[in-house]
Design brief:
The protein contains 7 helices and 7 strands; from the N terminus they run ββαββαβαβαβααα. The mean pLDDT is 88. By secondary structure, it is α/β, with parallel strands linked by helices.
Length: 225
């Protein structure tokens, strides 16, 4: 979390991590499409031959707290290709929370595991504790053949502390639920470490409502309370 006392701004950084072509960029593109024009910033993407996103996507969402602080939420993706590890580590620096986007296809199990281990390694290199930083796992591409079963995904959820979601990011399914679950845990972490509610007079419900009020939640209301 970054503070700018002069401008009374708080910036939160959310990073989408995962193996190449697992759907990180598609998640951000889907979120961007669902945000009303007055509540979204510019979505920037750099495509290359060997990976869809070389640097990052940036998506600012703004709201103001009761105490007069403006909160900026910035979403980034990292390049999934192994050769871009130094870039992944740089983008991950200063992250307040991480969404890990796994590919549901069985053939991608090894790549998912390697990317998960790489994420933990880069968090440590950036001085972040993988056991403390808020995280969520999304199993994307649930519409494809030969994917992990729902029971197998449930087993993953039982083994870890992170909430686990299923998604078809190309259709927007599960995208908002993943972001919501991650931000709910992010507020809890901020409140524990920085007394977020006491200092800025914003509850978890207000935090989430202010972020998602600019979004088209056509699939139904999210459980703010």
């Amino acid at each position: 979390m970054q503070f700018n006392l002069a401008q009374r701004e708080i910036t939160l950084k959310i990073v989408y991590y995962g193996p190449a072509l697992s759907g990180k960029t598609t998640n951000l593109q889907s979120i961007h499409k669902l945000i009303k024009p007055e509540g979204r910033g510019r979505l920037m993407t750099l495509d290359t031959r060997d990976d869809r996103t070389l640097f990052f996507d940036l998506l600012p969402v703004f709201f103001e707290t009761a105490s007069g602080f403006k909160v900026k939420l910035k979403l980034f993706t990292v390049p999934g290709q192994v050769i871009h590890n130094s870039t992944r580590r740089i983008v991950l620096a200063g992250a307040d929370a991480v969404a890990f986007i796994a590919d549901s296809q069985r053939t991608m199990t090894k790549a998912n595991n390697e990317s998960w281990a790489n994420m933990h390694e880069n968090l440590k290199l950036n001085g972040l504790n993988p056991d403390e930083i808020p995280a969520a796992i999304q199993f994307n591409k649930r519409d494809l053949k030969d994917i992990k079963s729902d029971a197998e995904v449930d087993d993953v959820a039982k083994k870890g502390r992170e909430p686990v979601f299923r998604a078809i990011a190309t259709q927007g399914a599960g995208v908002m639920e993943t972001l919501f679950g991650l931000l709910k845990n992010t507020w809890g972490s901020l409140n524990t470490r920085h007394s977020f509610e006491q200092k800025f007079r914003i509850s978890q419900v207000e935090f989430l409502e202010n972020i998602f009020k600019h979004m088209d939640l056509g699939a139904g209301p999210l459980p703010f309370k």
